[in-house]
Amino acid sequence: FKIMGWDSIFIMSVVSDENQALLGRSLADIAQERRCHPFDAACDLLLEEQGRVLVFETPTYPGDPFIEQAQRAALLDPMVSIATDTILMGFGMPSHLFFDCFPRFLGSYARDRALLPLRQAIRKSTSLPARQLGLKDRGMIKRGFKADMVIFDPRFIGTRSTPARPARRPRGISHVLVNGKIVVEPGNTNLDQLHGQVIRRADTC
């Protein structure tokens, strides 16, 4: 906290109804409102929620030019995959990375800044991580492979998500298929049926 500051910690989930308004706000902001030190605000919040507080910590903000300059060499390395471990948990506020990781990479790095060709950006987000993780039938459009596909317009692909307002769908994506089943199409999102599957070690090569 001494290095990054209290304003790098955002509240993502609490259990009480009274504190739902704190979602998406930083500890520094909450402390200022409560007129106390951020450490005291954190301790008070943990007591109020019986320890059930989920936070997202970030030293900066999406698009920070200093951070992106420091990461550029790694992100553009041909053997570095683009991936995120973010998941939707069904409660609280999701991380903005769930909504903007790949649209930001494709739209900002490949199209707007032309730091790498679009085909290479797609490879770093699909077939490369699949190969590195040992997923033998995913990551490519190929006969016999699982049809996990995102259809997007490269002219418009991009993000509208922010840490404070994460649940904003990306631009430019028309269809999403999971195992060959359409789950997103224009004007419709079908989440009633779950077409994905758990991939276990025995399923990898």
Describe the structure in your own words:
There is one protein chain. The chain has 205 residues and is of the alpha+beta class. The protein has 6 helices and 6 strands, in the order E-H-H-E-H-H-H-H-E-E-E-E. The chain has helices at residues 27-34, 38-48, 65-76, 97-112, 118-125, 127-132, and strands at 9-13, 54-57, 149-152, 173-178, 181-185, 188-189. A 4-stranded antiparallel sheet has the order 3-4-5-6, with no helix packed on it. The model has no long low-confidence stretch (mean pLDDT 88).
Question: Approximately what portion of the residues adopt beta-strand conformation?
Answer: 5-15%
Number of helices: 6
Order of strands, widest sheet: 3-4-5-6
Globular, elongated, flat, extended or rod-shaped: what is the shape? globular
Mean pLDDT: 88
What structural category characterises the helix and strand content? alpha+beta
**Rg, Cα atoms, Å:** 20 Å
The main pleated sheet reads as: 4 strands, antiparallel
Helix content: 25-40%
